[in-house]
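Class prep. Protein, please:
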Amino acid sequence: MLSPFDADRYLGTWFEVARMDFFFERGLNNTTAIYTCNPDGSIKVVNRGYNPQKDRWKTAEGRAVFVGSHNEGRLKVSFFGPFYGAYNIIALDDDYRYAMVSGNDTDNLWILSRTPALPEEVRNRYLAIVRQAGFAVNELLWIEHDTSS
């Protein structure tokens, strides 16, 4: 997991550029995640995406807590009560513009950006990292972001 990590710099809006298929997000485009600090030190997570088949937005609100040190990009997140999933920041550029997040295995992966597009050199570098880590890069879904939805 990423260390050192600065949660304050990580807060804000991230666009989901690519992901492994995930049941909650199936069929969604224009997906974003917004992270804000809760008074108790945990992080409020609001995930949002547009379902063009149903012509509606889908939103889920959750809570992320640090697993260990607040200086390490290793959290667990819950959208459904006491059930938590791993949220491991496995890559993050120095300016906190691009990030990769995984679960505890190679089944869950998200590539995030502060903007809807990912520069080609960042895309290539991140794909090389996850390919070497054993992720099925060919299974990544590249997410459409448009302003018409």
